[in-house]
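Internal ticket - ligand job 465, 2-acetamido-2-deoxy-beta-D-glucopyranose:
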Amino acid sequence: MALEQSRHGGLAMQRPSDDFLSSDPQAQRPWRRTGLKYPSLVALVVLLALALLALSYLPSPPTGDHGRAPLPHVAPASASLPLAPRPRRDVDITPCGDKPSNRGIKRHRGERQRWRERGAPSHSPCVEQPCKRGGSPQEDRLCFDGTVPPWLSEDDIQKMKLLTHGQVVSKSRVPAHGQVLRVRLHADGDTQPASPGKDCGDGRCGLIKRPTDLYEVVAFHLDRVLGLNRSLPAVARRFSSPVLPYSYTNSVPRPLIWWAPDVQHLEDTNNDQNSCALGWLQYQEMLRSHSVVPVAGDTACASIQRGEWGRLALFDFLLQVHDRLDRYCCGFKPDASEPCMEEMLHEKCRNPSELLLVHILVRRSDPSRLVFIDNAGRPQQPEAKLNFRLLQGIDSFPEAAVATLRSGCLAHRLLKSLYVDRELWESQGGAAGLWPLLQVLERRGQILLQYIQEHNLTVARDMLR
Ligand SMILES: *[C@@H]1O[C@H](CO)[C@@H](O)[C@H](O)[C@H]1NC(C)=O
Ligand SMILES: *[C@@H]1O[C@H](CO)[C@@H](O)[C@H](O)[C@H]1NC(C)=O
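stdout (structure tokens):
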């Protein structure tokens, strides 16, 4: 999908001047009443005030110290509404109850002003909390100052540290995946030697993806904020290692995803993107019958707990990931440029028995849970084209995740969570840059709540964390 690049801070210099320069005679009256004799002096004062106002509306430079332009994929702050639909009035959004913190530095006034216009919090624990600088430049790239967001586990933090600070000691291609590179990482504190030749069985590897997949880092934080805990830790990172090909070291941040060593793949080379084979009709039947339908020649799907499908559907709907449940784009009208159109997949929608689920994966260490990989999804999918087929057949969603959506705090919590990843944060223009994107997720969450209500669906307490 071609993602549109929009300009940072496109809101500059708008209306206030209209009010001041209005030719409406009403606007002139107070001047006369005050009986001022020096209209030119007053005009000067007004002009000055205008200039100050205009200044406060000017875009501030990117918050980062690198001054890079935000990446196209996760679109930066702008007035481009397809990315940032404002909440409609007919949906009740409970005000977020998260307590803001007043600690910390003051931000540029203009930035705050623009924030407020978009309905963003004027005080946010995430932006107001300065991260201590110092130490090596590398060490600044994760910020755990103040409180670590409670939805990130100790294990998440350890893995994020490895991904962010680990030295790249070797690389390997992943068969049939030209766009990604698997790298072995060595952290300073590691007791074991760097051992570049070692395979990734010890969990010290990551997968470097394309710069346009950065949204996958947001997806990781979304997973944790919602308490789903099914995706793998991911950070944004710029690379300079001589081990890597030149194109990887051009100072553009890329997502680095922790490599789970025990993801199960089918032996079948035509179907190695799955831990178990599952067709759409079987999947629907399985959901309907409340039991796992035996799948020809393979029982791996049978080990997957029922609640997992509700997690997956919720996650994929918010991110609009079609790859797993609807890679044929049967649930919306795809553009001609979509892979599902180019690969002639869409035509199969006419014959549901041919539709297969893809990327249905589990880990050997826990075959009862799904593991979500390749979560970049579609931040820009317009609201009118949301794929509701992703929700089809699901009659119960995870309670904790639904509670977070109901709280109206999703975007705030995501902001707080993403603040930890300085590379991502700065590359996207900070809070102001990220906010429209997070609003899209919040908005999709409200649409999902509405769907749950309209279809009388239930919410189930998670049996399995
Ligand atoms: C949901 O429940 C209400 C009231 O019980 C009923 O009128 C409505 O038809 C139900 N909707 C669906 C989609 O089942
Ligand atoms: C999250 O998942 C990991 C492995 O997938 C598991 O080890 C961990 O206990 C889970 N954490 C929570 C809080 O459920």
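Auto-summary: The CA atoms of residues 104 and 129 lie 5 Å apart. The chain has two domains: 1-129+263-465, 137-258.
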